[in-house]
Amino acid sequence: MLRFWSYWMGATVLGFVGGFAGGFLTIGLITGDEGPEAFGVPFEVAFPILLGLASALMATLQWLVIRRRRPSLARWIPATALSVLAGIALLVVFETVIGRPATIAASTLSGALHGLAVGAIVGTAQWFVIRDFDPSRRWIKAHLLAVPTAAVVGDIVGFYGTGGIGTIVIFVMWQALVAPTLYSLLTSKPADEEVRPAPAPASEARG
Q1: In the prediction, which pLDDT does 142 show?
Q2: For residues 146 and 134, what is the distance between their CA atoms, to the nearest angstrom?
Q3: What are the pLDDT digits (tens) for 27-78?
Q4: What is the pTM of this model?
Q5: Contacts 24+ apart (CB under 8 A), 186-192
Q6: CA dist 198 to 193, 195, 201, 203, Å?
Q7: What does the pLDDT read at residue 200?
Q8: What is the pLDDT of residue 194?
């Protein structure tokens, strides 16, 4: 379990944190710290794009960890990347309609609400990939607990610090919280795997 968790978190940090922070650093170096606006791309557009790319890289590295136990789960990559993008799009709409939280209480409530939404979207999309190992939908339930928790902490960090750091906290904490559930599911027997009776002894077969 500890080895799987360390590999999983390594994939998360290298993939998401490396991709997300590396994307912004690259843009900063190219534009002289002017940001994506130097290319005529508003920050509100560039931010979700970088989140999506970082999520795709994270999902790819996570799949390399998963395939050590379940080689057939390549759909994990598009399921994760697309569902995270859907969750981000929902969050952008949410902030456009409601506006950014102005108080720490509002930020905490916002984190819990959008955490529930993103957790439901991503957890369900990934569950369709691993549902043979999860008939009770434990993976979705784990997301409905982990993502709101991580989002509340990350939004508080973002409220007092920067949104980028808060986003990193959300993703790292989220993946750390759901990793034990995924390990339990991947090491379990598939739900549709039938228990076959032992073959009859040769003497009975001849009789």
Answers
A1: 97
A2: 17
A3: 677 776 666 666 676 766 777 788 888 889 999 999 999 988 888 888 999 9
A4: 0.81
A5: 186/66, 186/69, 186/70, 186/130, 186/133, 187/69, 188/133, 189/133, 190/132, 190/133, 191/131, 191/132, 191/133, 191/134, 191/135, 192/132
A6: 15, 9, 9, 14
A7: 54
A8: 42
State the Cα–Cα distance between residues 42 and 148, nearest whole angstrom: 28
DSSP 8-state code for residue 69: T
**What tokens appear for 152 in the block?**
């509340």
Name the amino acid, one letter, at 126.
Answer: Q
Distance (Å, whole) CA 143 – CA 117: 10
- For the chain, which ranges sit under pLDDT 50? 193-198, 204-205, 207
- In terms of phi and psi (left: phi > 0; alpha: psi -120 to 50; beta: otherwise), the region of 123 is alpha
Q: CA angle at residue 156 from 152 to 158, to 5 degrees? A: 115
CA distances from 22 to 16, 51, 149 (A): 9, 11, 26
Tokens 């993946």 appear where? 175
Which one-letter amino acid corresponds to residue 175?
A: Q
CB neighbour list of residue 46: distance below 8 Å, 6 or more residues apart:
27, 35, 36
35 φ/ψ angles, rounded to the nearest 5 degrees: 85, 180
- Locate tokens 């027997």: which residue? 189
Structure tokens at 57: 């890289």
Amino acid 94: pLDDT? 75
Instruction: Name residues whose C-beta falls within 8 Å of residue 66's C-beta, 6 or more positions apart in sequence.
Output: 73, 76, 182, 186
